Amino acid sequence: MGLIITYIFLNSLIENLLRLNLLCNTPIIITGMVSISVGFLFEILGIIALGINFRIELPIDETELITSGIYKTMRNPIVFGIFLLVTGTFLIIPTGIALLICIFNILTFNAKVIDEEKFLLRRFGEKYRSYRNEVGRYLPFVLKKI
Fold first, then answer.
1. For the chain, what are the domain ranges?
2. For residue range 120-142, what is the model confidence (pLDDT) as tens digits?
3. What is the pTM of this model?
4. Most buried in the list 55, 62, 66, 142, measured by CB within 10 Å?
């Protein structure tokens, strides 16, 4: 969001600062807008399914393992929504700075997810292990390690 506000007020500076002109076309911008919209949808569905278990920080011991709603198809819909938001923002404002921010956000949130999954494995044991083996982290299927 800060990137969009910066873009509005510093448009001419950003236009000349690492602009990736190859991505400056209507289909890419529309793809970015769709990505942002779908990202918000994933976040909302994830928050609704979590209900009172929603936390910004790592879960606490009293947390329940939610496997209903959108969590039937993916383990981390809120973070997946964030990935779509930052990617969509980059597609709308295709600069080197936006690309770095996008990559940073994806790496940071993925690291948070890995920590959260370690906590959930300790907290729920076999129940979480079974869920993790059946439901993908960000996609509706589990990617098997080769």
1. 2-7+25-134
2. 999 999 999 999 999 999 987 76
3. 0.80
4. 66
